[in-house]
Design a protein that fits this description.
Layout: H1 2-24, H2 29-46, H3 48-55, E1 63-64, E2 67-72, E3 78-81, H4 104-108, E4 115-122, E5 129-139, E6 142-149
Antiparallel strand pairs: 1-2, 2-3, 2-6, 4-5, 5-6
């Protein structure tokens, strides 16, 4: 009996260690929220021109593994995007996921206290479409968001 317990414990620890290593490559919900706060602080400090240029730099301080900031303007047009510059200038109200879920309006309707929006999206690190949850928060008419990919 003791031998079976030791084998089961070793297997569980191995799975946990593999899971922890895999999770290091992924951002978390807490990290997504922190990155949104960092982007908002930069926006308030430097203004939209400087902040949005920095946010849209894929090698800049607002991209971390699979986490990146996006910003929707008061006109519902994407003003900044950390990994896909082609999205800048597009209408957020028309964004759909692979299942056809129109989630752009949910993002654009973010309250000042923040909210989570769930959808499926291509992970820029894995290249796979995965479930994603984005933290979005409205500040001065803009919506700042960052999502994490769920395993």
């Amino acid at each position: 009996m003791r031998g079976k317990f030791i084998v089961m414990a070793a297997v569980a620890l191995g799975l946990l260690a593999g899971s922890c290593a895999w999770n290091k490559d992924r951002g978390s919900a807490t990290e997504a929220q922190a990155l949104v706060e960092k982007a908002i602080a930069r926006f308030q400090e430097a203004g939209p021109d400087v902040a949005f240029a920095e946010i849209s730099d894929s090698k800049g301080p607002f991209v971390d593994r699979d986490l990146y900031i996006f910003v929707i303007g008061p006109d519902k047009i994407i003003a900044a995007h950390g990994v896909d510059p082609a999205r800048i200038g597009t209408n957020a109200m028309e964004i759909k996921d692979v299942d056809g879920k129109l989630f752009g309006p949910e993002l654009a309707a973010a309250p000042a206290e923040g909210a989570w929006v769930d959808y499926k999206f291509k992970n820029p690190v894995s290249g796979e479409v995965e479930p994603k949850s984005s933290w979005v928060k409205a500040v001065d008419g803009y919506v700042f968001g960052c999502g994490y990919y769920k395993p």
